[in-house]
Amino acid sequence: MDALAVPHERGRGWYLSLMAPNTKGKDFAWLDPSRLYCNRQALSDCVKDLLQPFQNESIDLVAGIDAMGFILGSAVATTLGTGFLAIRKAGHLCVQTETQVYSDYSGREKLMEVRLDVLKPGLRVLLVDQWIETGGTMRAAISLVEKLGATVVGVAAVAIENSEGGKWIKENYRHSHCIPADLQAQIDRSTWTPSGASAARLSDPSPPALSQL
């Protein structure tokens, strides 16, 4: 599908067919969701779908996780009319920070940080990332926000895989993602492709329900 094309009928999740498959081999992620951000309508519809479960929630701030969560999180914040907080990989901020150790999808131990002069008790925060695979990165972000006294309203991502960490997030926090239930297993196995029958399925105007707590 052309990166900037918009179908006449847009079923919920139609924009997933814009995601690009890996063409570089095993050293890279199996899929590149960021291609859908190039399409103005796709990005708008993706954000709208992610926010649906939170439409009755009071949200003071959106926090996005380094790095791709910055793009989607900023779009979510703009739509909500809130500010945006960047949760960074450690070592980049020139101000006082709180840090949290975590293991990412590769299993490597890393450190993330957030500035100390924004989060405070009573602040209601929506956490956004592009993709939740093992859940380690998002769980660390949740810990950072809660450690500083703020409340995690929920978690939003294009996909939340049914890994141990992904299931923990789904069981403990309000959440939203864009993957139809009948495609979740393919996403979990990294076998879904944005072409053929799957793409046709996503163009169906009958909207599948978004997963939410």
From TrEMBL:
The keyword Phosphoprotein does not apply. Residues 194-213 are annotated as: Disordered. One of its GO terms (cellular component) is cytoplasm. Keywords: Cytoplasm, Glycosyltransferase, Purine salvage, Transferase. Its EC number is 2.4.2.7. It catalyses: AMP + diphosphate = 5-phospho-alpha-D-ribose 1-diphosphate + adenine. It is an enzyme of class 2 (transferase). This is adenine phosphoribosyltransferase.
